[in-house]
Amino acid sequence: MAQISFSGLAHAYGANPQVEDDYALNRIDHQWDDGGAYALLGPSGCGKSTLLNIISGLLSPSEGKVLFDGEDVTSLSPEARNIAQVFQFPVVYDTMSVYDNLAFPLRNRGWKDDRVKQRVLEVADMLDMGDRLGQRARGLTADAKQIISLGRGLVRPDVAAILFDEPLTVIDPHLKWQLRSKLKHLHQQLAMTMIYVTHDQVEALTFADKVVVMTDGKVVQMGTPQELFEKPGHTFVGYFIGSPGMNILPAQVDGSQATVCGANIDLQGCYKTGGSNVELGIRPEFCTLNNRGEGVAVEVQLVEDLGRYQIARATAAGSTVNVMVREGEHCETGPAHVSFDAQHVHIYQDGWRRESEA
Amino acid sequence: MALELRDITLKDAGQTHLYPTDMVLEDASINVLLGQTLAGKTSLMRVMAGLDKPSSGRLIMAGEDITGVAVQKRNVAMVYQQFINYPGFSVYENIASPLRVAGVSNAEVDKKVQWASDLMRLGPQLQRKPLALSGGQQQRCAIARALVKGAGLVLMDEPLANLDYKLREELRSELPAIFKESGAIFVYATTEPSEALLLGGNTATLHQGRVTQFGPTLSVYRQPNHLLTASTFSDPPLNQLAVELRDGLASTAQGDSFELGGEALPDGSYLLGIRPDHLRLHAEADSVPLRAVVMVTEITGSESFVHVHYGDQRWVSLSHGVHEPALDSEIDVYLQPAKMFVFDPSGELVRGPRG
């Protein structure tokens, strides 16, 4: 297992990139811990696959270096980097047994039979595939095949890192739960460096210690799930994480007062903001509907009952304000007010979160 | 203009794909087919569309028997998981294509394409080719084409499954209003309980070729009549606990016991169903603590999923906020007997949550 670092890393598919937009991946300087679980999260086209391909060695970056444990591997081939990969769709040999599929990466490296056996049994046990080792892969369901693919990724104890590229795409929701938590459990047992690429926030947040949120070829925030939820560093993170995402409202901020959709909101702390592009961000979880005239005047357009909670979808002066309402709490369409939990209000300028000044 | 399925079955090469199924899909309604892969959702849709002839039973549309009518002669539109568009046509012509086939006048085509593209917010993309669009826009284009056809029955087979999570969320929240405006009977297959809840309307839960329950979505969710329905309609999975009941006292194989409360039930074996959000990490009024071992914890930032073992049962607790009990540690998890589903050993519901 290895610590992975990026030094001045950037990639443009065309020659002579000049401006940010020319880059598929804008410059990053990161250090990812040995044994960490990382997720690259973002919509299609955000650059997460470009970054993954650079880590695996399928793509040579146009600028900067990739280091494994301090050693420059930028020019090494995928084989020479000693990396295991698990893809979106199962990669198994249909004619081989489950056992032989799992053994394949080890035999390839000249492992002796008894050592192969010990390791295969160990991994099969972790994946609850122990009783199916003699079965041919062909007859297995898509999710069983994907479990074998995971096993093939995990079987070599000496790899620098395991890369997962949307590995749960073909899996049914109820099995996703099992596989996801299995993967997390395995990570805790094995302490392998794992990198997981996905567009699915739930998968990213539940799997990773650190989530790297990307959009338009840029890393906009890297943090724990809690940090991304509680302190989105960029309005994109606020929007992308959470269902529904953060409410982002145009605001005027003067010291510790904000004016939002015609209402005055007290802020915790003072902000120095200039320019026109100032916004206030508040998650639906931290908004409360009231009929006491507190906060922003809204019109509730629709109430969606999702069983364990409800979402009130409201509008205020052309902006959308979503409010989470508890199960069983009364909620109806029509005029209302929405108040904000002050400690969860954030101020953004040009998309980036501003810290308050004491 | 309701669609009625009367005693429909589908068998093929000795395999039963659909067991006897009766359903009435009301005019201008949203009907979700919810079930795991291979539960029979696609089979049921293909029969409704006329792509497959049922082995027995009848299909009645607006009072007319259409069981033997070919799909071409029916007024049906279908949207698949894979976005299907004509790559050589502009978005405009893609949406217009069913109208062109029907020989509709240019002026009428234009009106309908404008209507559907406004509804699907494709106005700015009308002159582009599908491949120049994002996945979400390509699927909107396929849906718009299904809408202009003016079909009485629109079948959608996991239409959002191939889209990015966030796009899916956005399109999903727009669909109910779009469905309502079009006035057709919509049938929408999905594997995701949350999708059924977001779409509202009616939901049929499917399990291994059987419709286990069909009714208004929230009532199927809140009042499942069978363990299979409750499990199909639970994400994260429904927690289960087998108990022996004697004089109102429920005992587990692990030697724990607690008062079940509520109306008295006859002594015997029962299976309790506990939704993950009702399995708590902290004591509340009338809750019952059980010792469990922490397997793994998943945290989304706003919620925590704590997976535990109770005996050989695997449970998950869903709670607000960040909670991370140590791996392999023993903790108390709390059940609320008033919020449990009580099933008999065959899975039939005996009693739902109280209050």
Fold and architecture overview:
- The complex is a heterodimer of chains A (358) and B (355).
- With 358 residues, chain A is α+β, with helices and mostly antiparallel strands.
- Chain A contains nine helices and 20 strands.
- Chain A has a six-stranded mixed sheet with strand order 6-7-8-3-9-10, sandwiched between helices.
- In chain A, strand 9 (210-215) and strand 10 (218-223) form a beta hairpin.
- In chain A, helix 3 (98-108) packs across helix 4 (113-126) and helix 3 (98-108) runs parallel beside helix 5.
- By secondary structure, chain B is of the alpha+beta class.
- In chain B, strand 1 (3-12) and strand 2 form a beta hairpin.
- The longest helix of chain B has 18 residues, at 165-182.
- The chains are: A alpha+beta (358), B alpha+beta (355).
- At the A-B interface, helix 6, helix 7 and helix 8 of A face helix 5, helix 6, helix 7 and strand 15 of B.
Key terms for this structure?
heterodimer, A: 358 residues, 6-stranded mixed beta sheet, 5-stranded antiparallel beta sheet, 25% helix, B: alpha+beta, 6-stranded antiparallel beta sheet, 8 helices, 24% helix, globular
Concise structural overview:
The complex is a heterodimer of chains A (358) and B (355). By secondary structure, chain A is of the alpha+beta class.
Blueprint (SSEs and pairs):
The complex is a heterodimer of chains A (358) and B (355).
Chain A: E1 4-11, E2 25-32, E3 37-41, H1 48-56, E4 63-68, E5 71-72, H2 78-81, E6 83-86, H3 98-108, H4 113-126, H5 142-154, E7 161-165, H6 173-190, E8 194-198, H7 201-207, E9 210-215, E10 218-223, H8 225-230, H9 235-240, E11 247-260, E12 263-271, E13 278-282, E14 287-290, E15 296-305, E16 309-316, E17 319-326, E18 334-340, E19 346-349, E20 352-354
Parallel strand pairs in A: 3-8, 3-9, 6-7, 7-8
Antiparallel strand pairs in A: 1-2, 1-4, 4-5, 9-10, 11-12, 11-13, 13-19, 14-18, 15-16, 15-18, 16-17, 19-20
Helix pairs in contact in A: 3-4, 3-5
Chain B: E1 3-12, E2 15-25, E3 30-34, H1 41-49, E4 56-61, E5 64-65, E6 76-79, H2 91-101, H3 106-119, H4 135-148, E7 153-157, H5 165-182, E8 185-190, H6 193-199, E9 202-207, E10 210-216, H7 217-222, H8 227-232, E11 239-246, E12 249-252, E13 257-259, E14 268-274, E15 288-299, E16 303-310, E17 313-320, E18 330-335, E19 341-343, E20 349-351
Parallel strand pairs in B: 3-8, 3-9, 6-7, 7-8
Antiparallel strand pairs in B: 1-2, 1-4, 4-5, 9-10, 11-12, 11-14, 12-13, 14-19, 15-16, 15-18, 16-17, 19-20
Helix pairs in contact in B: 2-3, 2-4, 3-4
